[in-house]
């Protein structure tokens, strides 16, 4: 199909995410992808420096994942997951549990990151209900982002994204941002005063993504986990972004040696090929739902446990071998050296790196926010030069697929430096 027709149909029929269609420029038509690149309709190569919304792990169109999906599609594409089960879902669950922090032993499948969080929040609340305890408060972090469905929005920070729904969101106990203060002290205070009301505390371990790529200390996470455990409060680790090697180790909780009671996974779970969410829990949490019918977790989705997505995830996991860990470590080193050079620029502050994610703030004439024009300007400038960036306002980040080359990263950082010099 001709690119002009795609553009025309897009303008006529598509409603894009996070897009103000009154002012948005026409979307770029992408026709194919491979490795660290996507290609536009004219065949132009574009480095995907954001892993297409943080999902692509090893690379676009990774052949072994594509083949696993194709094979699975010939065998079993979908089956209802209540009362029925299948090999890809069971093998994936056992392979995940073998890699997850100790204690996580049961997997509930859903569709994406938001639903993985919804399931986690519902499990946490119902767990206490099932035990006859009225703990209905969730503690969550300032600047948190957990997704766009209502439970996920409620636990996330309030702001422009949630403003229209303020009245429908449930209250949470808001803890200060761990990139600014020692949140463990605030959690201890909260639990000293109202332990019997708190069901769970939810965190994005060590890297708060959409809230501004805020990086925080493993020691704070370790303290928070210890405090929560002592008080008998469930810890929910939202590893939707941080899972699957993004921050270095397979899961960010490993930096702190923390084993949460509940963990949310998505994005990199299928290597970025197909939507799939997973909420992993301990056997103790699972046991809290055993008994009469009223104790059932009444939650599910049409595509829960979809065989194609599970097959993709298994193929993705197989690629997390030694060389992948070395690649990720190498990307971190390359990030550090480029950031070292960039910090010489007077508009760059707060340069930071965790694993394969690098970020810094750009001075935006005294102010910075998600709506700072500088982010859009940089994205446009970079795209013209064949680099896909999507800053969070004045927070610029580089989050590439693991197959990215040094030359690609060089081009990404050179483009950013050129923009800063304009
Ligand atoms: N949790 C975290 C930490 C995220 O970064 C995101 C998305 O960016 C989500 C949840 C929501 O995931 P999804 O967009 O797949 O619903």
What this model shows, in words?
- The protein is an alpha/beta fold.
- The chain contains 14 helices and 16 strands.
- A hairpin with a 2-residue loop joins strand 13 (about 350-355) and strand 14.
- The protein is globular and about 60 Å long.
- Pyridoxal-5'-phosphate binds near residues 114, 145, 147, 210 and 238.
Mean pLDDT: 97
Number of strands: 16
Given the C-alpha coordinates, what overall shape results? Answer: globular
Cα separation of the termini: 38 Å
Strand order of the largest sheet: 4-12-11-10-7-5-6
Strand content: 15-25%
Query: What is the N-to-C order of secondary-structure elements (H for helix, E for strand)?
Result: HEEEHHHEHEHEHEEEHEHEEHHHEEHEEH
Coarse structural class: alpha/beta
| Distinct ligand kinds | pyridoxal-5'-phosphate
Largest sheet: 7 strands, mixed
- Number of DSSP helices? 14
Provide the low-confidence segments as ranges: none
Nearest-angstrom radius of gyration?
21 Å
How helical, in percent, are the residues? 25-40%
Furnish the topology, listing elements before pairings.
Elements: H1 3-13, E1 30-34, E2 37-40, E3 45-48, H2 51-54, H3 63-75, H4 87-99, E4 104-110, H5 113-130, E5 137-141, H6 150-155, E6 173-175, H7 183-194, E7 198-203, E8 207-208, E9 214-215, H8 218-231, E10 234-238, H9 253-256, E11 262-265, E12 277-282, H10 283-287, H11 307-318, H12 322-342, E13 348-354, E14 357-362, H13 373-384, E15 387-388, E16 395-398, H14 406-421
Parallel strand pairs: 3-15, 5-6, 5-7, 7-10, 10-11
Antiparallel strand pairs: 1-2, 2-3, 4-12, 8-9, 11-12, 13-14, 14-16
Helix pairs in contact: 3-11, 4-11, 7-8, 12-14
The chain binds pyridoxal-5'-phosphate.
